[in-house]
Amino acid sequence: MTRPDIGVILPRNIAPARVREFALRAEALGFDELWVVEDLGFRGGIAQAGAVLAWTERIRVGLGILPAGARNAAFGAMELATLAQLFPGRLHAGIGHGMPEWMRSVGAWTDRPLRTLDTHVTTLRTLLRGDAIAGGVRLDASSVPADPPPLLLGVRGPRSLALSGRIADGTVLAEPVTPEYARAAVERIGVASGHRLVAYNVGSVDADAAAALAAARPALAWIGEPGWAPHIDPLPFAAEFHALRARSASREEFAQALPDEWVAQLALAGTPAQVRARIDELAAAGVHSSVFAPLGDPVAALESLAAVL
Prior knowledge:
The longest helix is centred in the middle third of the chain and has 16 residues, at about 115-130. The chain has about 300 residues and is of the alpha/beta class. Helices cover about 45% and strands about 15% of the residues.
């Protein structure tokens, strides 16, 4: 089995003065990838990616994720092409539907989200390889990247995963990603090889396994809310999980009631050896890149997470 890549997410609410420090430390510690977040009301993905790429020299930078309905594909292609030319081979572009409630709040949700995503990604790919789209629009020859960035879909529903298998270079799975969920996603994607699977997970690494699990537990409080069934339903304890969620009066009560063994399966949490073993299980299930969502002080978290490298 090929060694999986290991990455880290740049927290969406990290203090601006610490973004450069985080990126440089992630690269120095040896992480393979750094994924930036574009969540409504926080920071723009393309601007963050450009800054991180400029500060660093080696680390691959992922955009996770750009909502298709909020961007014009032609102008989006110009942005991606620019980054790909300036930093060849280091950009991965994640694109998705966007969170429906966010997209509706800004008037960018469409009646045909699958078609919108399909058209957007297909148009990006056409432009990035230097071809024209309807109306004759194309990138100038001087702007076409020699190495177009891979386009990955950040999706979870069965039809969206199938679409990713047809039109994308890879898929980004939001946390929690267990081996069971990864295998179910791979089956939906329907691609035997050549399709990159990126998996986000809450990360907590400590020489004391109990301390790592305790730190990860509060970050799992939201899991099981509407829309996240695809992540949970493949698990052997899915029925018990849903029952616990239903009888919990609050997110906090639910998180505190999670058994340690569930936390260990819903996060990359434990000793370095335990987390490395879990990353290997994910790789065996089809994951090419395991990406940590750090907890607590972001730079300090990098130091502990790097123990698995």
